[in-house]
UniProtKB/TrEMBL annotation:
Protein known as: ATP-dependent DNA helicase RecG
InterPro entries to which the protein is assigned, alphabetical: ATP-dep_DNA_helicase_RecG, DEAD/DEAH_box_helicase_dom, Helicase_ATP-bd, Helicase_C-like, NA-bd_OB-fold, P-loop_NTPase, RecG/Mfd, RecG_wedge
Keyword DNA-binding included in the entry's annotation: yes
Entry GO MF terms: 3'-5' DNA helicase activity; ATP binding; DNA binding; hydrolase activity
Amino acid sequence: MASLDSKLVGVLGDRTAKVLKDVFGYSTIGDLLHHYPRRYLVRGELSDIAELHEGDEITILAEIFSASSRRLQGRKGNILEVIVTDGSAKMSLTFFNQAWREKELKVGKQGLFAGKVGVFNGKRQLAHPDYELIADGNDVDSAVESFAGKYLPMYPASAKLPSWKVSQCIELAIGALDEVPDYLPDSIREKYGYPTLHQALVQLHNPIDLDTAEKSRERLTFDEAFLLQLLLLTRRIELKNLHAVARPAITGGLLDALDAQLPFELTAGQRLVAEEIDNDLAQPHPMHRLLQGEVGSGKTVVALRAMLTVIDNGGQAALLAPTEVLAAQHLRTIEKLLGSLGHGGMLGSNEKSTQVTLITGSQSAAARKEALALAASGEAGIVIGTHALLSESVAFKDLGLIVVDEQHRFGVEQRDALKTKANNPPHLLVMTATPIPRTVAMTVFGDLDISTLRELPLGRQPITTHVIPASEKPGFLERAWERIKEEVGQGHQAYIVAPRISAGTSEDADIDFLMGETTHEIASVDELGPLLSGGALKGLKVAPLHGRQSAELKESTMRAFANKEVDVLVSTTVIEVGVDVPNATVMVIMDADRFGVSQLHQLRGRVGRGTSPGLCLLVTHADPETSSRERLDAVAATLDGFELSRIDLEQRREGDVLGSSQSGTRSHLRLLRVLRDESMIERAREDASTLLESGLEGFPLLAAELAQLQADATAEFIDKA
Ligand code: ADP
Ligand code: MG
């Protein structure tokens, strides 16, 4: 008898085992039994043929209505045409030179037929379909062999391995299988009324009824959630057990000096999060915290306070930003907030002070040398930088805190690369402006504690958003340019965002053509800038900004914009994250349907940051009542980042929802859907947490299963690196 670890060869023989290996990469019975059916066909309930569309890859259950072969005219060979029916509609199956099949394809027989729906002479047909005939109810011998049950599982399949072949392999594997030991603690299984692991596996593949199948699926889905949460919580406990230097808040230091000079009151939310962070930093174990907060919710000052706490304790902080524009802006913002507190080492500087330095890939050799020296000597309490911070030449005297801005742009690997520059495990604060639903955060950032800033600082201005259908209402676009002129007339500034840097390649036009779209040129920075400054925005100072410009040019353009020397910035999404120019009040986003929902929300967060309300205009050529337009309407309808991120996530594939953070465990997530299974993930998290409080000693099977998952995750992680 066999276990889940037994090789498939032993049960299925060399040839079949090889096909399963080649097609799906399976080598054990366990691998195969985790190949779950997508749905079930019910024996005797024929598929609805009228519903099939040309091009669909289908498997249908149908009855043979007629079968006849004839010679081909003027050519050699014959054609067998079999008509199948679901009782109302009919469809033809054709076979060339396989007249012998007429013997088995008998009128009245039912069978599964698989192939791609084609159209010939206006009629739908399957050419050379794979098929498997269903044994008659009284045909005992063959009935035991295949499709013994009432519910016929439909598997993800390939041309080499149609669903029923998979089904036959699984039947054989189950037949050979010993009772599978269950790793899930009985108490948990009984609490939810789940079947045992053995029952669940057998019943999912061969259910007696659909309820049983559903319960089995639920159990196996729960297992995925539960094991993943166990893994993440275990990692968290391991991190918590590492030794770090405690950096408790100190009175009379830089932190107090900053608080005394802040030009605003911290919001209640900021104070609460600050307390959580203070508390973490005071522990002799590394902080591992995610700070998520709406665009403009004031994360930077919260992070700065944490940095100063560490500096008050003699340590240094590194701030990792995704782009040079952002890094430079962080430098400006932090220098401004610190004022004389950031002028350490200078003549007449505040006695309680530190230095802030910047390390980027594009800075001059001299500037870099100076920055490296400041970081290494510890004179710079705050070191801000892009990926360049990760380079080997960068060293710290005593790196105590890492702040990562906009986490979704960085992988765990980069986070870890920076950690190696610290003498002891450093504290970590990860910031993201893309708020994500709790369960997604739990799954994607499951090893982090989570703080959330929900409220925006008082006096933050509302942003109004409108969709401008440029094809239907060209007048609206004219009006948009007018609005920009009005705002600039009142001393404000504007952003115009385009999806592209330069005019489209012919390739894109071809694709548009093939998709049957009315070809319209997607807006680009290179074209839009001159077009507007010579036309609709004549007289205004318009400057382009995009990723292909040199770092100096980008930096000087941003600086000019911040200093109001530029009225209108025409840019790509380089301004998407974090850019903070409170005087900007309008944003026009060209071809807005080319951007994702969260991205649009991020973009518009650039306006309404000052004392005047913000206006965001989403220009689109997408047709009304298309999903593109619906997405834009959704963005226009709400300012709630959580709601929008959910809409965004729902439209993505599961792998994209999880991002790179769970790459190591993703292959174990076959049934779990982070958004759909929210409440199950919550329950699994609680169960895992309760169990870990008393340890896994009493649960050796579970511990082994977890170790396996851990090993796989590590292996995949190493493969990737
Ligand atoms: P984000 O969370 O998007 O990074 P920032 O940290 O850039 O937001 O803050 C946005 C703006 O709000 C900045 O100009 C910042 O100085 C300001 N700000 C932060 N906290 C407050 C507050 N409590 N009251 C008023 N303004 C604040
Ligand atoms: Mg920010």
